[in-house]
Specification:
Pfam family, one: LCAT
Strand order of the largest sheet: 5-1-6-7-12-19-18-16-17
Structural class: alpha/beta
Number of helices: 21
Helix content: 25-40%
Protein name: Phospholipid--sterol O-acyltransferase
Keywords: Signal
Strand content: 15-25%
Length: 695
């Protein structure tokens, strides 16, 4: 296609958009917002922020020393060559969370702190976190000051983040600065532990501003909250890291990893806890001063004691304890332990099982206190930083945050660890426990590491390899009594495999759609509710096979986020959520060569356009229009007070075709309560399809 033809089509698209927006402005409502006024605030997850040295540390027997601003997390070169020095810069005092006497580290700032943890030709792609996200922002023309990262020291418990770094004060100022700078509210993107941080911030904010101004502050400063991979009931992998160590792929031993992880006060922030137990909702103390008025106590529903696993699939910990010291070794579980001991011969080990509640309330750590030297430290941190926290006990279920638009997004259908069998190793701390077996949830069943079926209460599907499904899907409780469910392929599609169920009844527990699956297709399942809370929307997105650590790099997720935001800001849409009817390429990277047809796939979106340096055919397949223009393919036009039959709808579509001249792409025209008109236009013809409205 010649350059003049492309320019003409671009102009046609622009004129069409102007005409469409003009129609919108003549209606009763107004456009929902200005794209240029929105800010995006990113709260990264655990171990997803760079830490830099703030000390001078000489490392003996190594040519590499630590100087101020040197990268600590993550510098694999220094980790490999001077591991003892590196640990000094990483470890915190397990009781008061102060730095090592010889080295201290602090979180880096800005987007560079969260894009790649260990920049480099080889290590960069392996440690990439939010880099792809930033690239999407650039491709869609987002201004540099519109994306704000708020890194934090992910080693600290919540109260210490404020006490040492004034993190939550700074976060509040970040929202207020973004509003003043750009003139509109912000969209919050939080991943993994970042969701726990944001929850704590919302509770902390209640103590900072007058109660009558709290909701207004949220409405003014936060437009939407996207909770990605949120461990809403904790993660069972935390238990493994606490007892035997989890290297997370680092070249260190499990014992070293356990020693480091257990020194972090944040290690308990992601512990699993019961969905049936809550703490008193009390404002005990203001960070700027005040007195303690009471103590938070657990209150568990009757279901906690009627069920076996605190709402999880199975008991999370099964541990062998030597029984030679008798029942006095674990008085906290005396009744439970006596039952086990009565059937054991003297001198043989006793296997005890612990649920999520018994882990979160400290029962488990009291039971092994005589067999694990780290239990005293754990109990101290658990009480000081969590049970007695002056703002919030984070080890309690989270109700829907009072934000206008909440989107809960997570991966499903991956093999996820949900339970462990531990036994003494005979070695000293930190290698004193070994894992003898692991229980996995996979495709709605429980399996041991050896492949045997395990009894329990599996969910409808499995988690995201790190967080169990029961924890991720807790946010389905935020949905109302009637939910619209849509299942669509993650990849680009023409709408033929989209399934919809409207007004599905939902009663607190999990909601499972009655929909089919093609075994070779990865789907996104959308659960959407815009009616149960007036003026607020809640949605849950489940992405098949989306890994917990890599979900923020998922092209399908980023595409859906952009389309939903574009829908909200640019269009006075008749629906509360973006249509799922069709998905085409949005970026040049989404175009590829179809060898079967000897052309670029998706010819209505992509064309072959060689640029010097292309090394294969797929690289030369590019969008016919820019990425920003391509988003206009998902515009929905709402014409009020217009009624027509199918013939009239087709005529109206042809009228818009005349206005668009020869625009290449597809648009959606919605006639309220009556028809959905889809018309796709290429250089030679006009295709019009009229259906009953599904939006």
């Amino acid at each position: 296609m010649g350059g003049e033809e492309r320019k003409r089509r671009r102009l046609a698209m622009t004129l069409t958009a102007v005409l469409f927006l003009g129609i919108l402005e003549l209606g009763e409502g107004e456009l929902k917002g200005d794209y240029s006024k929105i800010s995006g605030i990113i709260i990264p997850g655990f171990a997803s922020t760079q830490l830099r040295a703030w000390s001078i540390l000489d490392c003996p027997y190594s040519p590499l020393d630590f100087n101020p601003l040197d990268l600590v997390w993550l510098d694999t070169t220094k980790l490999l060559s001077a591991v003892n020095c590196w640990l000094k810069c990483m470890l915190l005092d397990p009781y008061n969370q102060t730095d090592h006497p010889e080295c201290k580290s602090r979180p880096d700032s800005g987007l560079s702190a969260i894009t790649e943890l260990d920049p480099g030709y080889i290590t960069g792609p392996l440690s990439s976190v939010w880099k792809e996200w930033v690239k999407w922002c650039i491709e869609f023309g987002i201004e540099a000051n519109a994306i704000i990262a708020v890194p934090y020291d992910w080693r600290l418990p919540p109260s210490m983040l404020e006490e040492r770094d004034l993190y939550f004060h700074k976060l509040k100022l970040t929202f207020e600065t973004a509003l003043k700078l750009r003139g509109g509210p912000s969209i919050v993107f939080a991943h993994s532990l970042g969701n726990n941080v944001f929850r704590y911030f919302l509770e902390w904010l209640k103590l900072e501003i007058a109660p009558k101004q709290y909701i207004q502050w949220l409405d003014d400063h936060i437009y939407a909250y996207f909770a990605v991979g949120a461990p809403l009931l904790g993660s069972t992998e935390t238990v493994k890291a606490l007892l035997s160590g989890n290297t997370f792929g680092l070249p260190v031993s499990e014992g070293t990893a356990r020693l480091m992880f257990n020194s972090f006060g944040s290690s308990l922030w992601m512990m699993p806890f019961s969905k049936y137990c809550r703490a008193d909702a009390m404002y005990l103390k203001h960070f700027s001063g005040g007195t303690r008025k009471g103590h938070q106590t657990y209150h568990c529903e009757e279901k906690e004691f009627q069920s076996n696993y605190s709402g999880f699939s199975t008991n999370i910990i099964n541990i062998e304890i030597p029984s030679t010291r008798g029942i006095d070794a674990y008085p906290s579980v005396s009744e439970f332990a006596e039952t086990n001991l009565s059937s054991m011969e003297c001198g043989l080990p006793t296997q005890l099982s612990f649920s999520a509640r018994e882990i979160a309330d400290g029962t488990f750590f009291k039971a092994i206190e005589d067999y694990d030297s780290d239990s005293k430290r754990t109990l101290h941190q658990l009480k000081k930083s969590y049970h007695d926290d002056p703002v919030l006990n984070p080890l309690t279920p989270w109700d829907r945050p009072p934000i206008k638009n909440v989107f809960c997004i997570y991966g499903v259908d991956s093999r996820t660890e949900v339970g462990y069998y531990f036994a003494p190793s005979g070695k000293p701390y930190p290698d004193n426990w070994i894992i003898t077996d692991i229980i996995y949830e996979i495709e709605g069943s429980l399996l041991s590491r050896s492949g045997n079926q395990v009894e329990g209460n599996p969910g409808a599907t499995s988690g995201d390899e790190t967080v169990p499904y029961h924890s991720l899907s807790w946010c389905k409780n935020w949905l109302g009594p009637r939910v619209n469910i849509t299942r669509a392929p993650q990849s680009e599609h023409d709408g033929s495999d989209v399934q919809v169920e409207l007004n599905v009844e939902h009663h607190i527990e999990d909601i499972v759609p009655n929909m089919t699956r093609s075994p070779r297709v990865k789907y996104i399942t959308y659960y959407e509710d815009s009616e149960s809370i007036p003026g607020k929307r809640t949605a849950v997105w489940e992405l098949d096979k989306a890994n917990h650590r890599n979900i923020v790099r998922s092209p399908a997720l980023m595409r859906e986020l952009w389309l939903q935001i574009w829908h909200d800001i640019h269009v006075d849409a008749p629906s509360h959520f973006v249509t799922k009817a069709k998905r085409g390429p949005l970026r040049d990277d989404d175009c590829y060569w179809d060898y079967g047809k000897a052309r670029c796939a998706w010819p209505e979106y992509c064309e072959y356009r060689y640029v010097f340096g292309d090394v294969h055919l797929g690289q030369s397949c590019r969008l016919r229009s820019s990425s920003a223009d391509t988003l206009l393919h998902y515009v929905c036009i709402h014409l009020r007070n217009y009624q027509a039959n199918e013939v009239g709808a087709v005529s109206l579509a042809r009228l818009f075709f005349e206005l668009a001249i020869r625009h290449s792409g597809s648009l959606f025209l919605v006639i309220p309560g009556y028809h959905l008109v889809t018309f796709a236009i290429d250089t030679n013809s006009l295709l019009v399809r009229v259906e009953k409205a599904i939006v």
